[in-house]
Amino acid sequence: MPVLAAAPATDIAVVQRHIRSLSTLTANFSQTDRDGRVLTGVLTLKQPGRIRFQYGKGVPLLIVAEGGALTFIDYSVRQVQRWPIRNSPLGVLLDPSRDLSRYARIVPGAARVISVEARDPEHPEYGRITLIFARDAAAPAGLTLQGWVALDSQNNRTTVRLSNQRHGVPVGDGTFRWNDPRRAGPRS
Predict the structure, then answer these.
(1) Is the pTM higher than 0.85?
(2) CB-count burial class (<10 Å; 0-12, 13-18, 19+) for 160
(3) What is the secondary structure of 165-184 as a DSSP string?
(4) 169 belongs to a structural domain
């Protein structure tokens, strides 16, 4: 991918170190969509390339990344959509081998916060993501992921805020398995 703009090498390098040093992460999340609807749940991340958004009770959605694909499951309509992680803005967070300096830039802001906007200028249809980190000496590489703002190719905004982050906790590979609703019998 082409270089977007010159970014402060130290901040991009710190974010890159954080992503590469992050083995696991669990956190509560609050997701706000373009209409202001808020959904909550638990996020589980395990590097490389695995993430799970387990929505709260009563929300029939699940998002799981494993095996190079990001999967969106809607149990209410028995629908499954998959696309390559590399085509998702979340790919920035899920692929520690990617060189952030090639497609990300620092967004100016407060001294204790580092905001990084990432996008692929050759593929605007992938959308863009702005990751927000707080400086935290006790966290991997001195940063804690606070959340992100994702914009899809139609400029629809989704904001995710994280709380109760826990780094380096045991996470089994089974966490990223899911039940395929298309294999279930007819609904009653």
Answers:
(1) yes
(2) buried
(3) EEES----GGGG----GGGS
(4) no
